[in-house]
Amino acid sequence: MATRALVDAFRKLDPRTQFRNPVMFVVFVCSVLTTLLWVQALAGHGEAPTGFIFWVTLWLWFTLLFANFAEALAEGRGKAQADALRGSRRDVAAKKLSAPRQDAQIVFTPSSELRSGHHVLVEAGDIVPGDGEIVVGAASVDESAITGESAPVIREAGGDRSAVTGGTRVLSDWLVVRITSNPGESFLDRMISMVEGASRRKTPNEIALTILLAKFTLIFLLACATLLPYSIYSVQAAGSGNPITLTVLVALLVCLIPTTIGALLSAIGIAGMDRMIRANVIATSGRAVEAAGDVDVLLLDKTGTITLGNRQAVAFHAAPGIEERELAEAADLASRADETPEGRSIVALAEARFSLHGRRRDKDATFVPFTAQTRMSGVDVGTRHIRKGAIDAVERYLEGQDSHMPPLVRRMAEDVARRGATPLIVVDGALTLGVIELKDIVKDGIKERFAEMRRMGIRTVMITGDNPLTAAAIAAEAGVDDFLAEATPETKLKLIRDMQAENRLVAMCGDGTNDAPALAQADVAVAMNSGTQAAKEAGNMVDLDSNPTKLIEVVGIGKQMLITRGALTTFSIANDIAKYFAIIPAAFATTYPALNALNVMHLATPQSAILSAVIFNALIIIFLIPLALKGVAYRALGAAALLRRNLLVYGLGGIVAPFVGIKLIDMLLVLLGLA
Amino acid sequence: MTTNDFLQIGLYLVVLLALVKPMGHYMALVFADEPNRVTRFGAGAERLLYRLAGIRSGEDMGWKRYAMAMLVFNVAGVAFVYLLQRTQQWLPLNPQHFAAVAPDSAMNTAVSFVTNTNWQGYAGESTMSYLTQALGLAVQNFLSAATGIAVLIAVVRGFARRGAAAVGNFWVDVTRATLYVLLPFSIVIALLLVSQGVVQNVAPYLDVATLEHGRQTLPMGPAASQVAIKMLGTNGGGFFNANSAHPFENPTPFSNFVEMIAIFLIPGALCCTFGRMVGDRRQGWAILATMLVIFVPLAVGLVAAEQAGNPALHGLAVDAHATALQSGGNMEGKETRFGIASSGLFAAITTAASCGAVNAMHDSLTPLGGLVPMWLMQLGEVVFGGVGSGLYGMLAFAVVAVFIAGLMVGRTPEYLGKKIEAHEMKMASLAVLVPCALVVVCTAVAVMVPAGVAGVANPGAHGFSEILYAVSSASNNNGSAFGGLSANTPFWNVLLAICMFLARFPLAIAMLAMAGSLAAKGHVPPSAGTLPTHTPLFVTLLTCVVIVVGALTFLPALALGPIVEHLTSLTGH
After folding, report:
1. Which residues from chain A sit within 8 angstroms of residue B367, using beta carbons?
2. Shortest CA distance to B155 belongs to which of B398, B401, B475?
3. Residue A197 has pLDDT above 70, yes or no
4. A494 in Cβ contact with A504 (< 8 Å)
5. Which residues of B166-176 are buried (b: 16+ CB within 10 A; e: fewer)?
6. Residue A554 and residue A552: Cα distance in Å, rounded?
């Protein structure tokens, strides 16, 4: 990769490429100028010793090459990944269907000719020919080409797992897929162009920073260019010495303009995108990555993000006059055929508490599944009608039985809810048996992450369909700042709009089609790769791992990118102080020898002083490439603490480092006899 | 430095700090959007003025309209002052029968007074009629200061307003700045000065017999009224050629103290006004603290350099120590009634603010002592600076500082709840760049052409300092003169007029453009992740940005002027 970057470094010397970066373009022009001066010196009309001009020229070209190398190195990583992705974008013969049915007529069509709206059949062993939505069927799919995850995933028609991505492979069964993207616009295509940096545009902060750097470059250009007339005047006034040479002026200019940040600026941006990709998040633009650093509010779904996916039964609370064992037995019976995680956890709890294990299922038992109308499930065993459900659903059921819930049970259920758990009431006909306590399990370590967020000034809001009481309890347990209970797609969207009206930047993640409007509205929207096509289209990032907690990492990467830019800008400008002390006394040594008092580093000769500064200026780029690619170490601290730290390291460090570096290079030059 | 030096500087700072808070609060009321007890007081006078001038005072202007009004008003001012000077021989109140002012000098003077620079290539008492002084120069003293305040207030509104399309009404702001701030306070100051012996009359010049039986002509005129506004409005154009060194402009140590306070009063108080108007007073104090952190060490350094005297004389049998009978140090070019501390402090104040009045010859300062005023101007006149213009210049630096620091905390930078983006960066960069560019480029022009070099009085590095000082003064709208340079020539008059004009208006328009885009933005509520801009850390950062930009741009030039001069004098040449 380094060799490839080295070749690219030379290729990037093209003036058209250089022109895009104002700082480095100035260096480019300067290098050409000194090269001409060197040629002039070779011809015997040199304004300074030929050797001196040669060394300055050489290091100016090195400065440019180092900058190009940094950028090429950053791009290299993306290129390697893009090549791998391109490998999976083979043109396959798709089984195009005349109608969206498995048994419809098949026409073999190259995948490159598929258009949005076509239907294809994908059978075991086939590669999915394009992005699409499953219309019929279910299959296990190997998505490792996209996600790098080798375990196959289940994709099926309907629901939130209905999207398939072109380039993935169906392992078993078959699917009828409606293609949703035209050639060249698929997810894979977008991913390739993203990692390759082909569609990389300057982000808003990058543009603002480029303006600032251009301003500094212009100031120094004027300050250096005008030194020539000043110097000519001073020589006349002092009556001694020679005016400053162009070579020295150029050296001074290149040392003063912010070449360090100018050289590394694009590498930082590319590396930031690259860090995202390595975190398995694909961002649709650099702008989205940058916005992640600005996020003020994080909206997090409760289930799967803050709590483990499933609620678990943790206790039985028997009604007055009922044995706990009796309640447990009834609950166990009602849940035997209930394959939901909650149902299974009730069976498990009953077994653990009363060893009900091994009781076979009654043959005449009829399982009553959960429906949206009754909002209860249960079992009919002979004359017994056992039902379990939420308070209001059960209450309605009891009314139908001319019965009512004992007030004590109602109180017990409310107590459970207040603790953040979910009460399930169990009844047997008209008789209320008691309450099952289902509890959300908050993920390990999530509370600490939220505390970290708070220190960074980011508010966390939990989104849940639970009632406010339950939501409040879980919110308190998880340590989020706020919560939205009984959330619907509409209330979610409204919450985001309200936050944005207060000029807060909102980040959220989601996977379902009903998340799509909120994802489209949020400033940073991470869609889960496992989610629907609609969600992926609406978001501006896709998490290939489908891990909702990733949002927190995404924010960190965004911030790190901005911090790295700021730190290197500060470092670059702070460097100038030492360079002045090296070059100013050297530049006017013949006119005003008294200025040598400013040579605080005691550099050997005027020429070694100037050369040392130029070499330091070039080498520091190489030294800082790892920092630019890795990013400045980011800590979740408040802004004030972060600023103090970074100012100390990169501001003060930037002032001190070149004094040491230039002195060392000067000593080395003396040692090598180049001084 | 003597105890007396420290006491004088300390006393000055204490009195200044005691005055800025009430003054700042008062100005916040003057420029408030809602009517209040202050604006109700003068509502009648305001209404009358608006009716006479045909101004729709209710109109809220977008930044472009505001900038256009400002530009038209000021260009008209240049034309008026120019014509007045060219026709003064036919106009009344010219008892000395002065002829018309030469075209280049008249143009230079017109631009100079309209841009609040008040560079004077002419000698007032031998050039300008009383009418020109009173109707042209004194009026512009008020209006240029009011323009500066108005532009600043529009910029502050840009930060304070949310989702707004307009930044205020230029005519109302200028009227209020004059009516409520400049007029009443300059009347108070004029009376204080008259009590000390500053002249205020329209009498012909006096011909008096001196003690040595010689004859002397003593110039007269309405000096006190003009001196008051020249200080309060950081104008600095002297009624007499000797400016505040003249005993009729600045007769006593007390009048000197009053004049020094008057220079910093409005620029300092506007920081408090700014804090109040953006709804967070700490922001104003932070800016004021930054100004003081830069100003105090430089002022102390200047006085110390003067008190230390000329290093070249140290080896000789010269007693330069301060004793009960002598001030010690370098007294060349200073008035004995002021001494070293009051002259040094005055020099620092008048160049930190863009006043430019002088009570001593800056050309005669020691090399390091002379470096301080020069560098204070080159910093962009943002350390107090001109009334209004100093603070908006400083806010441009604050935007740059916030941008660099904001990146370092990992967020899109915000200042006072407004996101700083490419447009703001462009305008802030322009505001910082223009004066810097003017100084280095125009100095280069001046040293390259014979007409520029011709005016230089001293050879060597000091001659270079004289040129650099003059261009720095004009390019930052300061107007003080180093002296030594004969600048009333067509070349210098034209070059400096260009500097003065370009330093004033493009910068003000850039800041108004920034205000327009800021006003349209919403307010981002602060969080723990927001960079606090009222802390000592931010003050340090802002100080560094101002100094580093100033130092990095001008160090090479300064090295060829005052620095080498100092180093050479150390070696005894």
Report:
1. none
2. B398
3. no
4. no
5. bbbbbbbbbbb
6. 5
Polymer length of chain B: 573
Reading the block at residue B114, the tokens are 């309209």
Answer yes or no: are the C-beta atoms of A437 and A313 closer than 8 Å.
yes
pLDDT tens, residue by residue, A304-322: 778 876 778 888 999 888 8
Tokens of A417: 């809810």
Question: Is the CB of A638 inside 8 Å of chain B's CB atoms?
Answer: yes
Is A301 a known active-site residue? yes
CB A58 within 8 A of CB A34: no
Please indicate whether residue A360 or residue A564 has the higher confidence score (pLDDT): A564
Confidence of residue A359 (pLDDT cuts 50, 70, 90): low
ipTM of the complex model: 0.90
Residues of B in contact with A504 (CB under 8 A): 524-525
User: Is A223 touching B (CB cutoff 8 A)?
Assistant: yes
Are B537 and A222 an interchain contact pair (Cβ–Cβ within 8 Å)?
no
Nearest to A205, CA basis, from B422, B418, B414: B422
DSSP B125: G
Q: Looking at the predicted structure, is the pLDDT value of residue A256 above 70?
A: yes
Find, among B395, B380, B526, B497, the residue nearest to B119 by Cα.
B497
What's the confidence (pLDDT) of residue A125? 85
Q: How many CB atoms lie within 10 A of CB B25?
A: 17
Helix (H) or strand (E) holding B208: strand B206-209
Q: For residues A599 and A606, what is the distance between their CA atoms, to the nearest angstrom?
A: 10
- Which of A213, A209, A250, A208 has the alpha carbon at shortest distance from A228? A250
Read off the pLDDT band of A249 (50, 70, 90): very high
Q: Which bin fits B55, alpha (ψ -120 to 50), beta or left (φ > 0)?
A: beta
Give dist(CA A525, CA A292) in Å, integer: 9
Q: What is the DSSP letter of B530?
A: S
The pair of structure tokens assigned to A207 is 């543009």
- Rounded distance between C-alpha atoms, residue A282 and residue A270, angstroms: 13
Contact indicator for A580, A599 with CB cutoff of 8 Å: no
Nearest to A642 among B409, B412, B420 (CB): B409
Low-confidence ranges of chain B (pLDDT < 70): 572-573
Q: Minimal Cα distance from A646: which residue of B?
A: B408
In terms of Cβ atoms closer than 10 Å to its own Cβ (0-12, 13-18, 19+), residue A413 is buried
Interface touch B461/A638, C-beta < 8 Å = no
Cα B165 to Cα A82, B158, B276, B336: the distances in Å are 47, 9, 21, 56
Distance (Å, whole) CA B385 – CA B503:
13
Rounded Cα gap, residues A235 and A558, in angstroms: 53
Q: With residue B33 as reference, give the H or E element that holds it.
A: none
User: d(Cα A419, Cα B132) in Å, to the nearest integer?
Assistant: 85
pLDDT for the residue B531: 86
Question: How close, in Å, is residue B416 to chain A by CA atoms?
Answer: 13
Tokens of B409: 């905390």
Q: A378 phi and psi, to 5 degrees? A: 170, -160
The Cα B238–Cα B1 span in angstroms is: 30
Q: Which of A142, A189, A301, A515 is catalytic?
A: A301
**Strand arrangement of the beta sheet that strand A524-528 belongs to:** A281-283, A541-543, A524-528, A506-510, A297-301, A459-463, A482-484
Contact at CB, B567 and A643, closer than 8 angstroms: no
> In sequence order, what DSSP letters do the residues of B380-395 get, joined into one string?
TSTTTTSTTHHHHHHH
The DSSP line for A423-469 is: EEEEEETTEEEEEEEEEEEEPTTHHHHHHHHHHTT-EEEEE-SS-HH
Best of B403, B408, B445 to mutate (most A CBs within 10 Å, chain A): B408
Quote the CA–CA distance of A324 and A216 in Å, as a whole number.
78
Beta strands in B13-113 (DSSP E): none
Entry pTM: 0.87
